[in-house]
Specification:
Length: 453
């Protein structure tokens, strides 16, 4: 999970949990407040009924009417019972509601003065009233429909608010974090595209010194040090390779002279010939290293326009001089845009080296010392296809094909260092082109060089 998604998730979850807890606390507090408020209303009603009995000396029909007028319809499904000190029912309201009671409840009232409990859908309040002459017990029951409706409305309001604001929070958080992380995304894209060919890439930092700008500055300082070290390494490789060419050239000349000398015995000639082959291989390795260094030092020198067919013919001609037994078959696909597509901006010498290496590789590893070259184009690309028949590469070998010093199973019995295709890839990368390998048919290797127009 990316840092952006993680921050969005954590912030959204935190808000969801806190808002859920706040809604739950609000609902519980209001529910308790409703109960306390309803209990107070029952208490007032119960005490008012008892006071009527205490203040009126005789209980008659007129008294009952007065009590009923003061009690009925004030609360929903209200029922009031009043008992004397002998636990005798002396008053019952005229409604049909019922209260479940027992003498133990009245005894509990005498001891604890009040109680408040739930009986099904009803809430019952009991109170003990002590006067100088007599004791009274009152039980009053009712349903708080109005309060419960308000509580239900509050519940739905909190649930809808929770869902709405939670979704809104997730959307706003995702959008805000994405916007804040845009500089980091740009930073990531630039870092991802950095390779050995563009070590001079730097990250822009704004004047406000936030964390991303600080990271960008430190990254630029690091890239400065890496670029300097990389250039020193390349300079050392180039200088060392160049200095080694002179003594190797003298050694090669001396060995060739010794082999040509008639005084040299056949045994010594055979020995010197083997040494000469090793020296030539070492010279070829040094030349390859020099070419790689030249590719790095010519990254900005690709301003001239050359025709790729002319470079290809020159590479074929030079290859035939060194390997006259190699056969190169040439095909060109007719296309009205081909003439324009053949014009490529780049370094002629490096492009010729790249094509020569691909052609040499195709012929050396073919089963008949033969390769086929085909030029084609589309609206945006010039494509050079080089194919040969022979042993193909495994999937594992294909993954590391363009790594330096990589050689496949089909290279047994042939000389080389595994730098040819690496040089080709570096040169093509310099010219914003690509090379790929595939199996076009059974026992057929195909290299595609694609130049972007």
């Amino acid at each position: 999970m990316t840092l952006k998604n993680r921050i969005s998730l954590l912030v959204s979850l935190l808000f969801t949990i806190l808002f859920g807890l706040a809604s739950t606390v609000i609902f519980i507090l209001y529910s308790n407040y409703r109960k306390e408020e309803f209990r107070d209303r029952l208490e007032i009603k119960a005490l008012s009924n008892i006071k009527l009995l205490v203040n009126v000396k005789q209980i008659d029909n007129q008294l009952l009417k007065i009590i009923d007028q003061n009690s009925i319809n004030k609360l929903y499904d209200e029922k009031t019972l009043v008992f004397d000190s002998n636990y005798k029912l002396i008053y019952s309201s005229i409604d049909d509601a019922k209260i479940k009671w027992s003498v133990d409840d009245l005894k509990y009232l005498k001891k604890n003065k009040t109680f408040f409990k739930q009986q099904g859908d009803y809430e019952v309040y009991g109170v003990f009233y002590d006067t100088n002459d007599r004791d009274f017990y009152a039980l009053i029951s009712a349903t708080d429909n109005f309060g419960k409706k308000k509580l239900l409305f509050l519940r739905y309001t909190l649930i809808v608010s929770y869902l709405f604001f939670t979704c809104l929070c997730w959307i706003i958080t995702s959008f805000t974090v994405k916007k804040l992380m845009n500089p980091l995304n740009s930073f990531h894209q630039k870092i991802k595209n950095i390779n050995e060919n563009n070590l001079d890439t730097r990250i822009e930092s704004k004047s406000n010194k936030n964390e991303i700008d600080l990271i960008a500055n430190e990254f630029n300082f690091m890239m400065d040090r890496i670029e300097v070290s990389y250039q020193k390494q390349k300079e050392f490789t180039a200088n060392a390779s160049h200095e080694l060419r002179t003594p190797l050239s003298r050694i090669t000349s001396q060995i060739e002279n010794a082999v040509a000398d008639p005084k040299t015995s056949p045994e010594n000639k055979s020995f010197l010939t083997n040494i000469l082959a090793d020296v030539n291989q070492l010279t070829e390795l040094i030349n390859s290293l020099l070419i790689l260094s030249k590719v790095d030092t010519n990254r900005g020198e690709n301003t001239e326009i050359h025709r790729m067919d002319e470079i290809l013919f020159s590479a074929i001609e030079n290859l035939n001089k060194s390997f006259p037994d190699f056969v190169i078959l040439f095909e060109i696909e007719e296309n009205e845009n081909l003439d324009t597509a053949l014009e490529i901006k780049g370094n002629k010498n490096l492009l010729e080296i790249a094509l020569s290496n691909v052609l040499k590789n195709a012929c050396v590893y073919s089963d008949n010392k033969q390769a086929t070259v085909k030029i084609s184009s589309d609206d945006h690309h010039l494509i050079l296809s080089v194919s040969n028949t022979g042993i193909t590469l495994s999937e594992e070998e294909q993954k590391n094909l363009f790594q330096p010093f990589m050689r496949g199973e089909n290279s047994k019995g042939t000389t080389g260092f595994g730098l040819g295709l690496r040089i080709v890839q570096r040169i093509l990368t310099l010219h914003k082109a690509t090379i790929s390998y595939s199996l076009s048919n059974i026992n057929t290797n195909l290299f595609r060089l694609t130049f972007h127009l």
